[in-house]
Each structure stands twice: as structure tokens, then as C-alpha cells.
Design a protein that fits this description.
The chain folds into two domains: 56 residues, Multidrug-efflux Transporter Regulator, Chain: A, Domain 2 (Orthogonal Bundle); 121 residues, Rossmann fold, CATH 3.40.50.2300. It contains eight helices and eight strands; from the N terminus they run βααββαβαβαβαβαβα. Strand 4, helix 4 and strand 5 form a beta-alpha-beta unit. The longest helix has 15 residues. About 11% of the residues have low confidence.
């Protein structure tokens, strides 16, 4: 497969308590990729426990969430549930994959147009795009991407700032960030990973490399 070299390079625009073992959800699997917050009943079905057990987890502070103002109803952000399930080794076989939400941030409209076109043709990714750090922050709040492809600028400071912003937001704990650049060395790759990035794509890259990077990052989450 040929590298995406035609348009990929520089110009501007455009989130173990007791359980019964194997998850037995049959026809009521939840597509968590389309949800940001769950009810205690939904969490109970996913974890294969009684609703009162989920309420105990919540009330004891083990499972982080919040109450709806003026109501006793509890709500659990998906990111908090995933963290809780991993920490307590609760099986995730009841979770159902849907369309991965992918946010592409690059100042080069050619890169954005090319990636949007080829990924739209070859995958079922739900793709949004933006062209700046500020726009990326706003789009993350609205779109809640599962994977973000972020083009590093002349300075790595924006990348570190982005990672700090995402890692500090409880609603974005499932977001995985992949750096894109034509000037990344092996040493810089290590530094980027330490800064909070989850992967690196060196330009020029192929469509297959982009798809594999997104699918690998997404698999880590789900």
C-alpha cells in the first residue's frame, strides 16, 4: 500500500467486589461506545450483579459517579465504570463494540481531507476534525472521542498541554491520544509516551498503519 504522501505535510484549516462471574447478557448488550453515562440498572446488567450491589459500590465510594440534582438517582460515567471493572477484574465480555469515535486534529487541510476520505471509505469510524489545540479541547468536550490523532506542531508544548487537559478530565479518561509527525525520533517517541500519548504515527504513513493504530488504541480501552 502506498504511503499517504500526496497531501500529508503542512498548511492550515478547517473518556473485585463480588460478582457472579461470566457476564450472561444476551439480547440486552449495551453499546457503550454510544453512551457517556449509565444508570445503576445498566451497570448491574453489564456487571451481572443486582442493582442494589451497584448502589452499595456507589455509596461506599468504590464506584465513582454522581446523583442527579433533586433526585436520588445515581449516574455512572462510562470511564469510571471501565476503570472500576479493570481494577476489580470484572469480566467485560458483555460490552459491545460500536463505532469508534475518532477526532483528527491537524492544521493541514490536505491531511484532514485525505484521512477523512480514506477512513470514511475503509472503516466505520465516526470521524470529527479540527485544526488547533483550542478547537481540539472544545471538540473533546462535545464529541468525547475514543481515539484522537493529533499532529504535533513546531513545539511539543501543545502536545503536552493537550495530554494534561485530557488526562485531567474525568469524562475523557477513555480517550487515547496518538501523535502524528514527520520529525519524531525514537528518543522523542519515548518522551511523548511519558508525556501522556498512547501511540505515535510517523509521516508518511499508510492507510493501514492509521487504521491499525486506531484499532489498537481502541482495543486497549474496550
Amino acid at each position: 500500500m502506498k504511503p499517504l504522501t500526496r497531501k500529508l505535510a503542512g498548511r492550515g484549516t478547517r473518556r473485585r467486589p463480588e460478582h457472579t462471574g461470566r457476564n450472561t447478557m444476551s439480547n440486552e448488550q449495551f453499546n457503550l461506545l454510544d453512551k457517556d453515562v449509565l444508570t445503576t440498572g445498566e451497570v448491574a446488567k453489564i456487571c451481572n450483579v443486582a442493582s442494589r450491589t451497584v448502589s452499595k459500590w456507589f455509596d461506599s465510594g468504590q464506584l465513582k459517579g454522581y446523583r442527579i440534582p433533586g433526585s436520588k438517582d445515581r449516574r455512572i460515567p462510562v470511564g469510571n465504570l471501565l476503570t472500576f471493572m479493570r481494577e476489580h477484574e470484572i469480566p467485560m465480555d458483555g460490552l459491545m463494540s460500536g463505532r469508534p469515535r475518532v477526532l483528527i486534529c491537524d492544521q493541514d487541510e490536505g491531511v484532514i481531507d485525505t484521512l477523512t476520505s480514506v477512513l470514511g471509505e475503509q472503516t466505520n469510524f465516526d470521524i470529527h476534525t479540527c485544526d488547533s489545540l483550542f478547537a481540539a479541547g472544545m471538540e473533546c468536550e462535545r464529541f468525547r472521542p475514543h481515539v484522537m490523532l493529533y499532529e504535533l506542531g513546531v513545539s511539543d508544548d501543545d502536545g503536552r498541554q493537550l495530554c494534561s487537559m485530557i488526562r485531567g478530565n474525568e469524562e475523557l479518561q477513555v480517550t487515547r491520544i496518538i501523535a502524528m509527525s514527520s520529525r519524531i525520533t525514537d528518543g522523542q517517541t519515548s518522551q511523548l509516551m511519558q508525556s501522556g500519548f498512547d501511540g505515535v504515527l510517523r509521516k508518511p504513513f499508510t492507510v493501514r498503519q492509521v487504521i491499525e493504530a486506531v484499532e489498537t488504541a481502541h482495543a486497549v480501552v474496550y
